[in-house]
Each structure stands twice: as C-alpha cells, then as structure tokens.
Amino acid sequence: MTSTRYELRILGRLSPPVRADFTGFEVSEASVETVLLGEVADSAQLLGVLARLDAFGLQVLEMRSLPMEVPTMARPDAGDATGPGGEPAP
After folding, report:
1. Secondary structure letter of residue 42 according to DSSP
2. Sign of dihedral through CA atoms 1, 23, 67, 63?
3. Domain count, the chain
4. Which residues pair with 5 in a beta bridge?
5. Which residues, including other chains, have CB under 8 Å from residue 38's CB and lie 6 or more apart?
6. Is residue 89 part of a domain?
C-alpha cells in the first residue's frame, strides 16, 4: 500500500508543544490558520491524526489529499525541450 499526501487546514495557530506532536508534517502558519502537510500511510493513521487534532480541541477547516510529487525528470515542464506538437523546440 502506498502512502497519500494530505493537507490539513486548522483554525488558529498551534502552540510549540502541539506542533511537536505532529512530527512528519510540514507546518506553516497563515494569519488565522495553520497548514499541516504530510504523508499518511493508511486510513488508520489518518484517523489517528484527526483524533489527535480533536484531542487538542482543534477545528479542521479543510482536509484534502494531494498527488504525490512527481520526480523532476518525469515532469513535462522540467526542462522539456519540445515545442508544440512534441516537435523539438528551436
């Protein structure tokens, strides 16, 4: 089973002890919300993350799965030297 990348938007800002509880997630803050971004192995782990947020009394504003990052060499916009129609660019 492959892991899934999730973005969770949380109302408010997380205190340092709460942030420390979410190791494995990138944590960024906006003016009124905190964004957690990280990989989750399966639904059991996702439910565990949501349960921890609930235990801290935090409100999840939005949760969405994201595509796993595509390696740079496989991305069509990463230095592809082809023009329209797949022909070599001048």
Report:
1. S
2. positive
3. 1
4. 39, 66
5. 5, 6, 22, 24, 25, 26
6. no
- Among 63, 70, 23, CA closest to 43: 63
What is the extent of the structural domain holding 21? 4-64
d(CA 49, CA 87): 47
pTM comes to: 0.70
> Token pair 């949501």 is at which residue?
50
Is-contact 20 61, C-beta < 8 A?
A: no
20: tokens are 């420390």
Contact 27, 19 (CB under 8 A): yes
Q: What confidence tens digit (pLDDT) does each residue in 30-56 have?
A: 889 999 999 999 999 999 999 999 999
3-state secondary structure 54-69: HHCCCCEEEEEEECCC
